[in-house]
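Thread: "does anyone have the structure for this chain?"

Original post by V.I.:
We have the sequence but no experimental structure in hand. Need at least a predicted one for the grant figures.
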Amino acid sequence: MALPLSDDRPVFPPEIERHIFELSALARPVLVPKLIFVAWRIKQWIEPILYRTIVLGRARSTMDGYPAFTSEALLSAIQTKAPGFIATAVQNLSIYDSAAGYEEILSACTGVTNLRVLSLDTAFSAHIPSTLTQLYVYDFPHESSAFLFSQLTHLDVMGLNFLDIDLDAFHSSVALLPHLTHVSFSDRDYTPIFLRLLRGCPKIEVFFYCDQDDEPLLDQETLAEDPRFVVLRLRAGTMWNWDYDWLMGVHCGRDYWYRVERFIQKRRSGEVDRFNPGLNRTSKRYVSPGMA
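Reply from O.Q.:
Generated one for you, tokens below.
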């Protein structure tokens, strides 16, 4: 006899049913608001997945299947959800613009491991999660960085060429990060310390530089001798699609870190020229037309 539609009893064994719904939610988190109405137990299982990856502010691109969040919606969830729900649910957070409420959001998302933000000023730095392992930032704070980022393994300094950069202070702060293994730059102003960082930080496994300028780098020949150092030269008029790439890393681990790691393996094995640090220009999915 068929069960009535209103019956909340599971047809499959609970562990199989949960696995099915979690796979569906992970594949397309945007479906979660509909799936949670199937049954209360389903809501308990998959609602945290809706909040696992959040992109706030203006983004150049999004990935199909991920919901669009606003700071107002997230602040409402922080205030109405059970204590600790947001702290454990939110793991990947991208804050593209600075706006009111972001300090409160960051202070509530204490379980974040992957953070992408324009700038970590004093207000933001006061709420850095101790769980943070990956940081993508335009302006990296030098003060107390070893304490604030004690668990950091991946650092991407996108840079803004109008900022005044204290290269010595930056080098000192990065060199003190105890677990840093991956570092990336896309601002030529940092190039004078590349060789110093590579030589002084043997724990660094991946050193990536993305640039549109075909001019030779300072110490380029010496840098090319280190298999950890990889350069991606973009074509004129294009720029790296950082938003899409970040989401790809979150979704399936296939971000630029993954591609650079594979390229380094090929250099070490001799599959590609050991003294050629140039990563091939990648597919159009990751490169978008330059923006004024």
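V.I.: this helps a lot. The longest helix spans residues 14-27.
O.Q.: and Residues 1-7, 283-292 have pLDDT under 50 and may be disordered.
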